[in-house]
Design goal:
By secondary structure, the chain is mainly α. It is built from 14 helices and no strands. Bound molecules: protoporphyrin IX containing FE.
């Protein structure tokens, strides 16, 4: 039944886009009317509000192809088939954010430059919007035909990772950094939800990479290597929920060299604190599933010698 339901034309392609864009635009519009946009604080709230309508869709796009590998079936096939339209819904949500950012930076310049503007965030955000524009443009055949498939993949993949990373890292800081600063406020429910869903979106990717690799691994890794791999994965999972406990200690290392501290003033995401847990999990999964470390490979290499 779900199978037939997902095949209905109203739940696919541009119909799906229209279906999803309706509530997104309606709620953004109603909220904009409810709040007095003469107040910069209200516009700041509207910026946050509009992003919350967008972020779930970038997470869904991030998971689509991985879910297809992990759980082949009509639902994951539907997701992959429609990821372009779901991605465009994300772009629409971000267009609302862009509108509110424009209102804030244009009509409340002082507030914007005193309260909001932070050089690195500005670079990060601008790169995000450049990627988004390129991704949207190249999702149409006419423009996509002007570049080769390698360039197309490069734009779509790096844009996807960058935008996911932006959203995910915002909620990481909201959970593990700001509440622990002087006068910091407790995280909101939305911070928890969007952080963990963002985490799962990437973890699902790692699982899908691993599943694809396991098929081609000739033999299991040695016990010692498996221990290291599982330790990485478990440590990563532990670190994912405890950023506040290790941030200070880790930053002493990551900022040990002055160049690293200077770089963090402009290089997006540097030194990558929000991503440490996922990097560890991915490294563990790599050790556990890579042919490079498989015992058979080593045995056959010895035989060849
Ligand atoms: C130059 C571009 C950008 C500017 C100036 C900007 C500015 C802002 C501002 C002012 C807020 C509200 C902060 C607050 O209320 O405390 C915000 C929130 C946020 N922005 Fe952006 N942003 C930009 C680009 C982006 C991009 C590309 C993304 C990618 C997804 C993004 C994701 C977010 C998220 C996730 C939030 C938090 C929403 C929440 O509170 O739940 N922003 N941004």
């Amino acid at each position: 039944m779900t199978k037939n339901f997902l095949k209905l034309k109203y739940f696919n392609g541009w119909y799906l886009f229209l279906l999803l864009s309706f509530p997104l635009c309606l709620f953004n519009f109603l909220t904009m009317n409810e709040y007095d946009t003469k107040s910069p604080e209200n516009i700041s709230y509207l910026i946050s509000y509009s992003v919350r309508w967008a972020v779930p869709f970038i997470y869904i796009v991030m998971m689509a192809s991985s879910l297809r590998i992990l759980f082949p079936g009509s639902f994951s096939a539907w997701l992959v088939r429609n990821r372009k339209y779901i991605g465009l819904i994300f772009a629409l949500g971000m267009a609302w954010q862009a509108l509110f950012i424009f209102m804030l930076s244009n009509y409340h310049r002082d507030y914007y430059y005193n309260e909001v503007f932070y050089f690195r965030d500005e670079i990060e955000g601008s790169i995000g919007y450049i990627f988004l524009t390129l991704m949207v443009a190249t999702s149409f055949k006419k423009i996509a035909s002007k570049i080769n498939s390698y360039q197309w993949k490069l734009i779509q993949k790096s844009g996807l990772y960058f935008l996911w990373a932006y959203a995910f890292s915002v909620y990481w800081w909201n959970l593990f950094y700001y509440p622990f600063q002087q006068g910091g406020v407790s995280p909101r429910l939305v911070d928890y939800i969007f952080y963990w869903v963002g985490f799962i979106a990437f973890a699902v990717r790692i699982a899908a990479w691993s599943k694809s690799k396991i098929k081609s691994v000739q033999f299991r890794q040695s016990l010692a290597l498996r221990c290291v791999g599982y330790t990485f994965v478990l440590l990563g999972i532990f670190m994912a929920g405890t950023g506040n406990l290790w941030l200070g200690a880790v930053n002493k290392i990551t900022y040990y060299f002055a160049f690293s501290e200077e770089t963090s003033l402009w290089l997006p995401f540097w030194p990558l604190e929000p991503f440490f847990s996922l990097i560890l999990i991915a490294s563990g999964a790599y050790l556990l599933t890579s042919n490079k470390f498989s015992l058979l490979d080593r045995a056959s290499a010895l035989q060849v010698k």
